[in-house]
Amino acid sequence: MLTPDEHAAIAAAIRKAEAGTAGEIRVVVLTRPLVRHAFFGLMWAALLALVLPWPLALLTPLATPALLSLQACCFILAGAVLIFTPLGAGLVPRFAREEAGRTAAVEHFLALGMHQTRGRTGVLILVAPHERLVEVVADEAIHAKVGHDAWRGVCAAVLAGARQDRLDQGLADAIAEAGRILAHHAPARAGDTNELPDRVIVM
Fold first, then answer.
1. pTM for this model (two decimals)
2. What is d(CA 35, CA 48) in angstroms, rounded to the nearest whole number?
C-alpha cells in the first residue's frame, strides 16, 4: 500500500509538522476492512428473497411450496453474491462504517499510548481505505481548544490524495494541516522532546 520511500516521506512530514508544536502526530493505515459485510449481505439477501418473487407470483399461479422454493433460491443466490463479491461491501450503511472507524481510531489511540504524552496533545490520523474513511482523534488538551470541525481539512486532504491514487501525498498534506492546527493551539516549548515514533503504522 505504501512503498518504503513513501513511508520515509510521511515520517519526514511528521517530523516537520512537529517541529513547530508541542503536539505529537501519528498515522495508522488499515489494510483490512473495518466492517465485515456478511451480516449486511445476508440482510439484503433476505429482503430481496421476500420481495422479488411476488411480482412473478402475481403474474403466474404459483403454489405455496413453489413460492417458498423460489424465495429460498433467491436468498441463497443473492447471499452468495453479496457475501463473496465486493458488491456487498458497497451495501454497508454509512453509519456502520463511521461507527467502526471511530471505534478503531480510539482503540489505536489508546493502544499507541497517545493519551500519555506530557501535555495531552497527541493527534491520531487513522485511514481505512476499504471504507474510504478518515478519522482524527485528538487528546483532551487539543480537543478542548479545537473541537471536531477543525479536522475536516485534515480528512479532506487524505481523501483527495486517495482519489488520485496518491495516498502518500494526501497524508503528507493532512499532516502539514494538522501541524498548523497544533502549532496554533499548542506551540513548541523549550525542552520539548519527540515522545512518540514518527513512522506510519500499516496494519
1. 0.79
2. 22
List pLDDT tens digits, range 103-157. Answer: 999 999 999 999 999 899 999 999 999 888 999 999 999 999 988 889 999 999 9
- How far apart, in Å, are the Cα atoms of 150 and each of 115, 122, 185? 20, 15, 11
Q: Which domains does the chain have, with CATH numbers?
A: 4-35+93-202 (3.10.310.50), 38-91 (no CATH)
Per-residue model confidence as pLDDT tens digits over 25-77? 999 999 988 877 666 777 777 787 777 777 776 777 767 777 777 778 888 88
For Cα atoms 32, 37, 40, give the angle at the middle one, nearest 5 degrees. 165
**Chain centre distance of CA 140:** 21
Three-state DSSP at 28 gives strand
Pairing of strands 122-128, 24-29: parallel
